[in-house]
Design goal:
Structural class of chain A: alpha+beta
CATH topology of the largest domain in chain A: Jelly Rolls
Oligomer: homodimer
Shape of chain A: globular
Protein name (chains A, B): cAMP-binding domain of CRP or a regulatory subunit of cAMP-dependent protein kinases
GO molecular function, one term (chains A, B): DNA binding
Radius of gyration of chain A: 18 Å
CATH class of the largest domain in chain A: Mainly Beta
Number of domains of chain A: 2
Domain Cyclic nucleotide-binding (chains A, B): 25-105
Distance between the termini of chain A: 21 Å
InterPro entries (chains A, B): cNMP-bd_dom, cNMP-bd_dom_sf, HTH_CRP, RmlC-like_jellyroll, WH-like_DNA-bd_sf, WH_DNA-bd_sf
Strand order of the largest sheet of chain A: 1-7-2-5
CATH superfamily of the largest domain in chain A: Jelly Rolls
Number of helices of chain A: 9
Order of helices and strands of chain A: HHEEEEEHEEHHHEEHHEEH
Largest sheet of chain A: 4 strands, antiparallel
Pfam families (chains A, B): cNMP_binding, HTH_Crp_2
Chain lengths: 243, 243
DNA sequence: CGGGCTCTTGACCTGATTCAACATTTGTGG
DNA sequence: CCACAAATGTTGAATCAGGTCAAGAGCCCG
């Protein structure tokens, strides 16, 4: 139904029924489309005057670097996600953003966003909802790193990614295309790359999933959900504002 | 200057110069004050129709529970902080809130908040700024758990708490009153209580700080900052909107 | 066809956990 | 105001999850 529109429209649409006028406003935000190549940071820590973007195609990650060179990936963004909403509010970016693949994103000025919001308040709520969902994911990520072991954590992470991708039509319960390397996974999960490799092997040997050649294949969805204590509801609340 | 007002006014006031009208609106939010006793959860996971609160006195923590009984504290809230802003947006709370001390908080209906925001847009921005700061803290927390060892992580956490408390006038660089037990620290830092105890001993033996009898005394501020790689700027950006 | 990336595996090491015992403080009712 | 129970803090010893180091294999792309 929303498939002819942007991934963002599709994502928001699954929580708030958007009418044609609202969809038009959303599409209007996708002017000034930019393309970025993989590996070259899009935003970096301490940078001032950074813009916000809506990701249209490709994957990026936001991360922080410690002085000893280790890094922690805070989150991955996939099509339909906002980039750097917070950096606009703080005048200076507190994290880096790296394109994992070639990326297409629409630059959005804060003024445009505000205009769109006043034109269509339902849109504002939907975006606020999306931002809250992102925050909830960061919290879940924190819980995972703090209290889950490597196996559960990895399973949980991949299930979450799968759920997010389903929302924008880029995954099924059978799996998804995944451009991440094991190093990305390690940096996100707070593990070493070597250990991630071992964990992936274990998941494979248990017949739960495979992570190979840019493909995640989910072999035993229920088994994974049980292992990870994954809350199937947590990403698809039935919308905050049916009213 | 703002000291006769609520801790919230004081906190926001250090980022946006609020005029008397704005302060009055803020104060107006503090109707329906409630008192909660320590230990009995104020909000719990899965609860629907939970209110938002502004914390006026005392400390609370928000946490998530895993099935095996371990818990992860996501954040502590101190006077001037909002509680459960996200639970209002999601119809159901995704975390628990436990009062650590006896707590005084003002219940705020979403409608009141929205009214206040339309009356005073600068206030809305200030609150949005505060929410972003909270999110930035969760991110920093994530980085700490993912990539810092127990000693650095503990030091960083206590420095952050100190910085936050200074904003509401409840700490100096010499230290602060702290109602947390070592168990609280453990649950927040993703460590065992036993190890927290050893880490605190090490901090004491290194002459950096003491954590005793509800008091944190900072003995060597610069040493701690160096150990924790604490970014002195990160909580006191000079305001997002001087305009 | 050679040089990076990425992945894989083994051997060894270490930071943190667990378990267990005991000390100290705080709170509570008599 | 004391006595006792519960909560909190302290310490040592054994164990383990995950990290580090090292080396090699596969593979993608210019």
């Amino acid at each position: 139904m929303y498939s002819k529109h942007s991934p963002l429209a599709r994502k928001l649409g699954s929580f708030v029924a958007l009418d044609d006028a609202e969809l038009a406003v959303l599409d209007g935000l996708h002017q000034r489309r930019r393309r970025f190549v993989a590996g070259r940071d899009l935003v970096h820590q301490g940078q001032t005057r950074s813009a916000a973007y809506i990701l249209a195609e490709g994957w990026v990650c936001s991360y922080k670097l410690l002085r000893d060179g280790t890094r922690q990936i805070v989150d991955f963004q996939i099509p339909g996600d906002f980039l750097g909403l917070r950096s606009v509010l703080f005048r200076t970016a507190d994290h880096n953003i790296e394109p994992i693949t070639t990326v297409e994103a629409s630059e959005v000025k804060d003024s445009e966003l505000l205009t769109a919001f006043t034109q269509t308040p339902r849109l504002a709520t939907a975006v606020l909802w999306a931002a809250s969902r992102d925050e909830a994911m960061v919290v879940e990520h924190l819980v995972g790193i703090g209290r889950r072991n490597a196996l559960e954590r990895t399973a949980h992470f991949l299930l979450e990614l799968n759920a997010r991708l389903m929302l924008v039509g880029q995954a099924t319960t059978a799996g998804f295309d995944c451009p991440l390397t094991q190093y990305h996974l390690a940096d996100a999960l707070g593990l070493s790359a070597v250990h991630v490799n071992r964990v992936l092997r274990e998941l494979r040997e248990k017949g739960l999933l495979t992570f190979q050649k840019g493909q995640v294949e989910i072999l035993d969805f229920k088994g994974l959900v049980a292992l990870a204590e994954f809350d199937l509801g947590y990403l698809d609340h039935e919308g905050p504002l049916l009213r």
